[in-house]
């Protein structure tokens, strides 16, 4: 057993003085395993009592509060929660779940402003931000603030009202949380002037789309099954595999130097730097999408 471990992990005559685990054939096997692991996710719920999805603690109140805090920081008047815009946001989220799409416009071309009009909110200006797969409210608002188009909606002085819906459900086979944020100013109410492009007076043309927000639907899974995040599971496996290879490459370099073994060609340092770059990217990567 010890001989087998040494063969795989330690440079030795049995493996031509290169740990077997960092031979090209074994690295190829590791890559194949990772690909199969990714593919197996779609079939996992058929064999294990698990739900693929994202667990979140987002609330509409927090989204509104964080939005108004960002507006205060930038000297923009805060927004008032409007029940009609809130209903519009709920309807938009429900429609995305019901028709299984993730976009500003529905598959049949229906624009988001239809939900605003259907809620009997007669708007002069309107805007929409959307988000999905986030775990908390702050991450949602931070993501919007880091996107120029979403930030423009969030901080626009044209808007006086806001409606937010946060809904959990199943979208394209994944349990997720959608956040839908509608902004608006009613007809007959003058909007504050702001620096930027000239505002067109036609309401339909003025409506701007910047992001996506999630809402609840009838597809909500009410069982007590374990919820497994595809993103987090994949990231954890990748972190483990890359960390293992990094440790082995470092150990290989130390042992080769210590034993004074000469190699005709060695790219251990280049491989290690490449692994460190991937590792850093994995550490800073976060779940969540915006539109």
TrEMBL record:
CDD domains in the cross-refs: CAP_bacterial
- Superkingdom of the source? Bacteria
The SCP domain covers 64-171
| Annotated InterPro entries | CAP_dom (IPR014044), CAP_sf (IPR035940)
> Which residue windows are transmembrane per the record?
21-44, 237-256, 268-290
User: Which UniProt key words apply to this protein?
Assistant: Membrane, Transmembrane, Transmembrane helix
What is the protein name given in its UniProt record?
SCP domain-containing protein
Q: What is the organism of origin for this protein?
A: Candidatus Blackburnbacteria bacterium RIFCSPLOWO2_01_FULL_40_20
Q: What is the lineage of its organism?
A: Bacteria, Candidatus Blackburniibacteriota
